Amino acid sequence: MSAAITIKSSEELVLMRRANEIVAGALNKVNSNIVAGVTTKELDDIAEDYAKINGAIPAFKGYRGFPASLCVSINEQVVHGIPSKKVVIRDGDIVSVDFGVKYNGYFGDAAFSTVVGDRLLEKKRLLEVTHHSLILGIEQARSGNRVSDISEAIQNFVEKNCYHVVKQFVGHGIGSKLHEAPEVPNYKRPGRSPRLLPGMVLAIEPMVNVGTSDVVVMKDGWTVITADRSYSAHFEHSVLVTDGEPEVLSAAVNSSFSN
Questions:
Q1: Is the pLDDT of residue 259 over 70?
Q2: pTM of the entire predicted model
Q3: Does the 10-248 domain belong in CATH 3.90.230.10?
């Protein structure tokens, strides 16, 4: 039996909005510090400190054994990159940052990608396509639609632009748990997907590769990289399905492609 999809009450949504405000604030502060020469551990410390100062708990730290608060993935790394004092960001790197918090029992989650310094056209275009696919996916997060409408909008736009969506990792519901039903793939699966109803909150997160859609997990057990070592980008928002326009709870994230 599949897990039940939860409908959030107005009281729960107050907490989720605040959780996502904290996520956005932390990511914006991290973004302003992504420069050549900074270590990914320094970025991790910035996000963790911001969460704690604002009364939240970093959601990823300790989750299934993950050792850090922030996921920082560089170039061919897709998601789940582990911050380290030894990893120094360099000019020209694509840096993808994913962060979540728990605030009074409820979660927020968002991600963005940026390019440091030298912005080669290839990298800029990848980020633009990935970000726009997220926007198109969010536009389909409407009452009466299905999860597959989100998935199809993302996949169609990405593939139209000759890139590839990652299929081994997907978006998800979010609420009192970091990962809830339903799964939100970035590609259309066979069969009928769940109907969207007001009060559902979805973490929509396209992960897009220049080359193959195939990915592998590195020996650290976490860092996911493209199988062909091509570039990858990742954007994510937590989105509330309403009776009208979707509400992007993490909308305050500055997802500009430059610093």
A1: no
A2: 0.96
A3: yes
